[in-house]
Amino acid sequence: MSEFDALPDSWTIWNESPDQCILVFRPDVFDSHEFPAPCLPTLYLTHGQRSRRPGSELDPDPTDPWVVTLFLEPEVNRDADHYDARTDAVEGTIGLAERFADGEIDYRELYQVPREEYFEKLDELTGE
Which InterPro entries match (predicted)? Predict the structure, then answer.
């Protein structure tokens, strides 16, 4: 039994390790053919800041928070949520994934320069 069993079907675990998990929304649709690859909606669950790159020699401090961030593109993201424990962060990640899949996240407000075709596809996939 995975800790992500309650994850909505529209989200896929892309990569998982003890200190991070990367989830992607509908990679079958946002596959770089119709939309640029950076437009793949992505959730990052990381222990400590996401800027700590994989393979870095610095392990997160045990007191570092767990951080959950939704990215629509590398420079377009929702403010991160912070949690003290991984179990709480996993629950928060699943909740955010559900809200996104159900159309409850206003992704338009995250953009300074809107991508109308992209928004239309997200609207269609999230039931808006």
Answer: DUF5820
Q: Where are the alpha helices (DSSP H) in 12-111?
A: 86-101
d(CA 37, CA 81): 25
> In this predicted model, what pLDDT tens digit does every residue of 14-25 receive, in sequence order?
999 999 999 999
DSSP assignment, residue 49?
A: -
Contact assessment for residue 4 and residue 94, using Cβ atoms and an 8 Å cutoff: yes
Q: Give the residue among 22, 25, 50, 28 at the shortest CA–CA distance from 40.
A: 25
Q: How far apart are CA 40 and CA 34, in angstroms?
A: 11
Contact 92, 79 (CB under 8 A): no
30 vs 123: CA distance, rounded Å: 13
